[in-house]
Design brief:
Radius of gyration: 21 Å
CATH class of the largest domain: Alpha Beta
Helix content: 25-40%
CATH topology of the largest domain: D-amino Acid Aminotransferase, Chain A, domain 1
CATH superfamily of the largest domain: ATP-grasp fold, B domain
CATH architecture of the largest domain: 2-Layer Sandwich
Largest sheet: 6 strands, antiparallel
Strand content: 25-35%
Number of helices: 14
Structural class: alpha+beta
Amino acid sequence: MKVLVIGGGGREHALVWAIRKSKRVSEVVSAPGNGGIAEIARCVPVDVKDVDDMVRLVTAEKPDLTVIGPELPLSLGIVDALKERGFVVFGPTRAAAMLETSKVFAKEFMKRHNIPTAHYVVCASADEVAHHLHRFHAPLVVKADGLAAGKGVLICASREEAQRAAKELFSGALLGTPVSTVVLEEFLKGDELSFLVMTDGKHAVPLVAAQDHKRIGEGDTGPNTGGMGAYSTDLLLDPAMREWLMTHIAHPVVDGMAAEGTPFAGILYCGLMMTARGPMVLEFNARFGDPETQAVLRRLESDIVDALEAASIGRLVETELVWSHDASVCVIAASGGYPGAYVVGKKIRGLREASSVPGVEIFHSGTQAGSDGVITAGGRVLGVAAVAPVLREALHRAYQAMEMIEFEDLVYRRDIGHRALGKEGK
């Protein structure tokens, strides 16, 4: 098989890495790829903001399977365009991807289908926000309705701060472009959990659970990012709770989307808060998470291509995902200043040495090949992913490798997964 992966981040690097291991695959193409992906696959240019350009590429390459990595192409309808032309493609249609691309759609869908989530109000103006603020205790959450690369969710310590945040979202001061709708939401307390399921629109199977670390600073401080690290262990989710999540969240979503005429096929990412009232949905994503994918795929023992293809053609019931009981972790190396302004073009050193640490794979997020090596090309630059029998050892390997990597203004969190070490008991 020839497989094409659209996207150029750490998630796509992990997907390419996993797909290459399949005995069924003779060639992997990545578009546009990055400096790390270029070492293991053929990279070709494409504009992921342009459906016509992506269709042109797929038509020229004629892959047996196309995998869509990022949310933006999904939101533009790339899956619809490719399916219309007879291509086998992994990912949801534009209408189904609204579970991620519209916070309002997702909240109202959950309300219709009795899926547990935080109390909320939809507001179309700053005046509406002011009118409804009295319904929420502080802290509270303000969410931009559309895609915002992980930067459209604001946790506000007071109602006054929430009012300011909403004004800045409506004016465009916060995200660069104005939003037309925001969601006011109650703040949920508990442990976050990333629960991903693969679905063909009818059947759904769970992936191993992961926990993401979204804040830039250690101790979960500072602004939200796209994710500064993630880990995955069997201890995150016992079988009874996994079954509960499938019964009360995953299956109702898949069945509800099908019943509404927009069947969801691909990866359904359920961002959960495990509260005292039970699991509650914070958000849905319509694709693999980043950096969860880098950790999760390190634990996959079965052939990912079998599953991706089966989900794409409505035959997921015929395949099985097999997972290692090892623990895994991914720690992100970011550019100084991220998630705000940062400088790119910094030379990266130590990648070969870091990759030699047992159990470590380096997944590139924002890099490109320079004239004398790999240089930084994004806010999140690298994901150092390690696997070991227990989480403590996986973390030790990841941080050992991270210390070997150098580029100017490199920043990373030193506490990824540390809250879970007590549960491990080792």
